[in-house]
Design a protein that fits this description.
By secondary structure, the chain is an alpha+beta fold. It has helices at about 20-30, 55-70, 80-95, 100-110, 135-145, 155-165, 180-190, 190-200, 200-205, 270-285, 315, 325-330, 345-355, 375-380, 385-400, 420-425, 435-440, 470-475, 510-515, 535-545, 555-570, 600-610, and strands at about 225-230, 235, 240-245, 245-250, 260-265, 290, 330-335, 430-435, 445, 450, 455-460, 465-470, 480-485, 490-495, 505-510, 580-585.
Length: about 625
């Protein structure tokens, strides 16, 4: 309270601005100890490369405008009138441009101070990057949105309003519209965070996390083959139905050529064996095959169960026979389960789709968006290749056409070379079977351990058992466990092995069962293709613009002709000069050799004679 008993207010000088403190000290004649004064520093301006391309263009235009203004002012007359005339000239050139004399002076000063930001129109940019959503409200929304159940943004917005109304009622009126939240999801929530929050760690690893690149420079041909299945984007027919066939294929990782292929109605372990057999016949035995976790690859007698291997004690203690890959000396590598980066063969299947599948008139596309408009009409008209025609064409096109396409893989030095040339140049060692018979033995399928019973041993085909036996085999091995190896295309006989994988003998099938259950080849199927006509006027115009001699199958014929020429040329070339040829043998010496029929009655009589006759007790 002052002397007049009235309140007065005392303010610390240090809380005032420097100019207010200066005024106080001038009025009271005291020195000027500015407590909060800071040393003056030169203002730092943004360099040109900190602006966007559009902003840099705007700066260039403003600098040109200022140069024109200075040139215009050199004319005779009053400066103020010349400035007004120049502004009017600018408005006539660009009616939508906001310009005034004051603006010109402001930008002139900014340019003199090297303040490039002063030349940029900052209207609407003051709040850029700032959100009208309260931070607490935004965090509540993201708590609902970043959920592995992937709720809709609209549902999260409604839940956010309910949550804020209950826990932060003072913030309810400030919640902006739903579209504001959607806009900020796209701008403010990083893609990696969305993947982790809504789809999990697996999606984050597959789509956002860094990955290890494979190096192919030091890889040799036949070192690694990659196997996979592909659904044809082509409709074919078998005389009764139309359908899409499948391709089981092996790919050489170094060169990218298809080594072994097989067209089938359904991928299976047997289609994998056939494709592998064809690849070995043409190119030799690979060191490693890289496969995913499909059942057509992870079969106990083909490559083992891999990631599908059971963890039960009974399964761990069970002894299984050597797999086909083990007999061939091939290591199997399994892709990580559900790894989106594992299938490196998919890029070659995309080449197959673009370069081969689109040659056929009944190309159906990989999805409904790629489906040609005329496909349904063609199918109703009975068009389309037969299964046999498609199979023969695909096998020729893969071997003689796609395998000769320029290499475009990871090794820069080989890019542009034909893929077959890359394969041959990097083939330094080749493993081959000693004979066709050895290959047949190496590729035989196996059963699990089977107990020999009175009828012999059996294979289960469908729901029926086919028995195999000889008298001497049953006599010597009844009650023991053996393995059977067999060719699914010829079930007239099997090969029996003991638990130490030693060959015992070959067993014939029961003659009553062989004819009924002997495996047969796939049925022959037929079809053709055509092109759907469009509107009459468009069709007439297109006919005038194209050559009549080029039909829908011309590209296919050209590709097939190229394939045949390449195959014929390669047939005349000497074999690739591998420095080392290794022979893979499957020779086996039977433990038990047939010596003719055994006379059991004679054996019994000899035993009785040695014991001095019958015992009457």
């Amino acid at each position: 309270m002052n002397v007049q008993n009235r309140p007065e207010y005392a303010v610390l000088l240090s809380t005032l601005s420097p100019s207010a403190q200066l005024r106080y000290f001038k009025e009271h004649g005291q020195p000027f100890p500015l407590v909060s004064e800071k040393p003056a520093s030169a203002k730092a301006y943004k360099p040109l490369d900190h602006f966007s391309a559009a902003e840099r263009e705007e700066i260039r235009q403003e600098m040109e405008t200022l140069a024109r203004w200075q040139e215009y002012r050199r004319q005779p007359g009053r400066t103020a009138e010349l400035d007004a005339e120049f502004v009017e000239l600018l408005r006539q050139e660009d009616p939508g441009r906001a310009v005034s004399v004051k603006t010109l002076y402001r930008k002139k000063k900014a340019l003199e101070e090297n303040d490039l930001a002063g030349l940029v129109d900052g209207r609407g940019k003051a709040r850029k990057g700032r959100s009208s959503i309260d931070e607490t409200v935004w965090q509540a929304f993201l708590s609902f949105y970043l959920d592995l159940r992937e709720p809709k943004a609209k549902e999260c917005y409604e839940a956010t309003i309910q949550y804020v109304r209950r826990h932060y009622p003072a913030l309810v009126d400030g919640i902006p519209t739903y579209s504001t939240f959607v806009r900020h999801i796209e701008k403010d929530v990083p893609y990696a965070v969305q993947q982790l929050g809504r789809e999990g760690k697996k999606a984050l690893r597959d789509r956002c996390a860094p990955y290890v690149r494979r190096i192919y420079d030091n890889m040799e041909s036949n070192e690694i083959w990659v196997a996979d299945n592909h659904t044809f984007d082509i409709i074919s027919r078998d005389g009764k139905t139309t359908h899409r066939l499948y391709l089981t294929a092996f790919l050489d990782a170094r060169s990218g050529i298809f080594t072994g292929v097989y067209v089938t109605t359904a991928p299976s372990s047997q289609s994998t064996v056939i494709a592998l057999r064809r690849g070995i016949q043409r190119y030799g035995i690979p060191d490693v095959i890289y496969v995913d976790n499909g059942r057509e690859f992870l079969t106990f007698d083909l490559g083992g169960l891999g990631h599908r291997k059971k963890k039960s004690k009974a399964a761990q203690d069970r002894h299984d026979p050597p797999t086909i890959l083990q007999r061939l000396g091939i290591e199997m590598m399994n892709a990580q389960v559900k790894n989106a980066r594992a299938k490196i063969i998919e890029r070659r299947f995309l080449d197959f789709k673009n370069r081969i599948s689109k040659l056929f008139e009944t190309y159906t596309g990989g999805n409904v968006l790629e489906k040609p408009e005329n496909l349904e009409k063609l199918l109703r008209a009975g068009k389309g290749p037969t299964d046999l025609e498609l199979t023969e064409a695909v096998e020729q096109l893969l071997e003689g056409y796609l395998n000769e396409q320029p290499y475009g893989g990871a090794v820069a030095a080989d890019r542009g070379k034909p893929r077959m040339q890359v394969y041959n140049e990097n083939l330094h060692r080749k493993r081959v079977p000693r004979s066709e018979e050895d290959l047949n033995l190496l590729l035989m399928r196996s059963t699990r351990a089977i107990k020999v019973d009175r009828p012999g041993v059996y294979l289960t085909v469908g729901k029926t058992k086919i028995y195999y036996r000889t008298d001497e085999f049953v006599l010597n091995y009844q009650g023991a466990k053996v393995y059977l190896r067999y060719d699914p295309l010829d079930l007239s006989h099997v090969r029996a092995y003991d638990e130490d994988d030693r060959f015992i003998m070959e067993l014939p099938a029961d003659s009553r069962m062989v004819l009924e259950y002997r495996a047969s080849a796939e049925e022959v199927k037929e079809a053709q293709q055509t092109i759907r006509s469009f509107e009459k006027q468009t069709a007439e115009r297109m006919a005038a613009m194209t050559l009549k001699e080029i039909g829908p199958n011309t590209r296919l014929d050209l590709a097939l002709e190229t394939a045949r020429e390449n195959m014929a040329r390669r047939a005349e070339e000497p074999a690739p000069g591998a420095k080392l040829i290794e022979l893979q043998s499957a020779y086996e010496e039977p433990m038990l050799k047939a010596v003719g029929d055994i006379d059991l009655d004679r054996m019994i009589n000899n035993i009785i004679t040695e014991n001095g006759g019958y015992d009457d007790e």
